Amino acid sequence: MKNPKYPNRKSIRLKNYDYASQGWYFVTINAVEWKHIFGKIQNGEMQPSKLGEIIEQEWITTGEIRENIKLHAYVVMPNHFHAIIEICYSLNNDNPLGEFIAQKQTLSTIIRGFKGAVTRKYKSLKLGNLKTVWHGRFNDKIVRNEREYISFTNYIEDNVRVWAEKRGET
Q: Which among 41, 51, 50, 48 is positioned nearest to 163, based on CA atoms?
């Protein structure tokens, strides 16, 4: 049953695609209301705020605690975060009948855990009075081949420079 309190939003995920399957994903997560709370760019370099530092720490921790993923290029920007994440193998296959699975290891589950960890640390350190630091959703693109992987990696690596050039902050 639909909850009338919430808008009827369509899923932005690819229909019938298994987001727990092996593959590379380019992810963008925006700050709440696109606020510049993750840091600022000065002299062509990203200067992370304490929150920006927490984002990087928690991203690295995400790669350490989840055995089925590898982290590739990423960048913390003033109001968003980009990353390439690889799901190396699915933890959801070949489960014995009747065995309880706590949670599927989908891309959404991984990102939800990361966003939650960042928000909890932000609140525990009393860095501000925001209820959350993240926009409700995240964007992803399935990386389909090596050419796309290189393109997304270059985009991430050039993001600070391009941001600074567009805003005259070089």
A: 41
